[in-house]
Design brief:
InterPro entries: ARM-like (IPR011989), ARM-type_fold (IPR016024), Armadillo (IPR000225), RING-Ubox_PUB (IPR045210), Ubox_domain (IPR003613), Znf_RING/FYVE/PHD (IPR013083). Residues 70-144 form the U-box domain. It catalyses: S-ubiquitinyl-[E2 ubiquitin-conjugating enzyme]-L-cysteine + [acceptor protein]-L-lysine = [E2 ubiquitin-conjugating enzyme]-L-cysteine + N(6)-ubiquitinyl-[acceptor protein]-L-lysine. Its EC number is 2.3.2.27. By secondary structure, this protein is mainly α. The protein is built from 24 helices and 3 strands. Strands 2-1-3 form a 3-stranded antiparallel sheet. Strand 1 (87-89) and strand 2 (95-97) form a beta hairpin. Helix 6 (178-191) runs parallel beside helix 9 and helix 14 (292-301) packs antiparallel against helix 15. It is flat. The two termini are 40 Å apart. The relative contact order is 0.06. The model is unreliable at 1-10 (pLDDT under 50).
Length: 445
């Protein structure tokens, strides 16, 4: 039986696999024993290998079907109901499996399937934390995570489309036409994902950022929002991320929009930085340009949608060690702790704290700001296993880095509430094992 009793006790594929392996051994022996074997033997061996491969994939499909009823709900896509292989975060801060939410967006929907709120943008940000937790869960239960499905739902670009794009870019240099052209380009790159790769070359960017359009953006907030959103849309395309981030004009433009734009423009600028931060080299460029401080300001004082986008961008940037230190220097820990204590964007901000918790100075600041009782209270309140897991990860790092105050606080809480002890009783779960690790660390001098 598989770990945890998830798989069926009898394997319906075992007998067939055994037969195929015996047949393959026989064929391979005939091939290796003879210098002049018939080509049909090699073809037969290939057919048997293909049959084994097909059987393997069928077995994996049944395996996941059998365990569907015990997969943590946080690991299932709200659309498909199946375990996620490529979890991504929508603007509503809800996580979906990429192919299913991408199909939803490609059909023209601009609302979150779960919350029904209108989306400020359609950037899909990889949820690396959830992906890692799903991978660990699958490993713990003897399962292999299915490979991400890559469909091809995009439309075909015609010669007429190329001509239309060229015409719109030409109009961006004309004062009477540039507002209308920018709005059309914004809608085009939003509604037709296949247009985005066409806009990711230096020549197109030069035409978007010609002197006329840049000057007009300074005095027309609506035009500036359209321009920022165009860069957001084309940054979603993986092939464009390097070109966009490496252009010396674009990151400063996005930072300026963060600082001086209206609510919509600030939100879209943060979303663009979030999309670009998916590449390591872009994280360095964005961090060096000084984006973290205005992102922290947006997180602290922005519109709710903008706050979510800022949190996503900060989390993406904090996959780079230098940016974690910049965030700490710019007061990010204080802002994040205050918001978590007010129960704002808890899931998103816990992810950032988890990234920062390997920095001793960040841990010191967290402890001084009351992180230990705050995190323990979230564990007791929350039904979300992912949030509990992140709280425990942070607490474990705190225990390892702070040998005095934090340990006493945890011991006092355990005496009163037994928060960690109750979790540690379930040693088969990752949450339980992490809680057990924290309790054990309390008595290590």
């Amino acid at each position: 039986m598989a770990k945890g009793g998830i798989l069926k006790e009898t394997d319906p594929f075992a007998g067939k696999a055994k037969e195929l392996k015996k047949e393959l051994q026989k064929l391979v022996k005939e091939i290796t024993d003879k210098d002049d074997y018939k080509a049909e033997l090699a073809n037969d061996a290939i057919k048997v290998l293909c049959s084994l491969q097909e059987l393997y994939f069928k077995k994996k499909q049944v395996t996941f079907k059998d365990c569907d009823n015990v997969v943590p709900v946080e690991f299932k896509c709200p659309i498909s109901g199946k375990i996620m292989s490529d979890p991504v975060v929508l603007a509503s801060v809800k996580t979906y499996d990429r192919p299913f939410i991408q199909r939803w967006l490609n059909e023209g929907n601009r609302t979150c399937p779960l919350t029904e709120e209108v989306l400020s943008h359609i950037v899909l940000t990889p949820n690396q934390l959830v992906h890692d937790m799903i991978s660990q869960w699958c490993n713990d239960h003897g399962l292999e995570l299915p490979k991400p499905f890559r469909g091809n739902d995009e439309d075909v670009i015609t010669d007429a489309d190329h001509g239309h794009l060229k015409s719109l870019l030409a109009e961006m240099s004309s004062i009477p036409d540039l507002k209308n052209a920018a709005r059309k380009l914004r809608l085009l790159t939003e509604r037709r994902p296949s247009f985005r790769p066409l806009c990711g070359d230096h020549a197109t960017i030069d035409r978007l950022l010609n002197p006329v359009s840049v000057a007009h953006a300074e005095c027309d907030p609506d035009f500036k929002d359209d321009l920022i959103t165009i860069f957001l849309n084309i940054s979603i395309c993986d092939d464009n991320k390097s070109v966009v981030a490496e252009d010396p004009r674009i990151i400063p433009l996005l930072i300026d929009a963060l600082q001086n734009g209206n609510d919509a423009t600030r939100s879209n600028a943060a979303a663009a930085l979030s999309a670009l931060s998916q590449l390591d080299k872009n994280r360095l460029i964005i961090g060096k340009a000084g984006a973290l401080k205005p992102l922290i300001d947006l997180l602290k004082e922005g519109h709710p949608v903008g706050m979510k986008d800022a949190a996503a961008a900060i989390l993406g940037l904090c996959f780079l060690g230098k940016n974690k230190k910049r965030l700490l220097h710019d007061g990010g820990v204080t802002v994040i702790m205050e918001m978590i204590m007010e129960r704002k964007l808890v899931g998103d901000l816990l992810g950032i704290l988890a990234r920062l918790s390997d920095l001793p100075k960040a841990v010191e600041e967290m402890v001084e700001l009351g992180a230990v009782p705050c995190l323990l209270s979230i564990i007791r309140e929350s039904e979300d296993e992912v949030n509990k897991e992140m709280c425990l990860v942070i607490l474990l790092e705190i225990c390892m880095n702070d040998k005095t105050k934090s340990r006493e606080e945890i011991k006092e809480d355990e005496d009163a509430n037994s928060t960690l002890y109750e979790l540690a009783e379930n040693v088969t779960s990752r949450v339980g094992r992490t809680a057990k690790g924290i309790l054990e660390s309390l008595y290590i001098e």
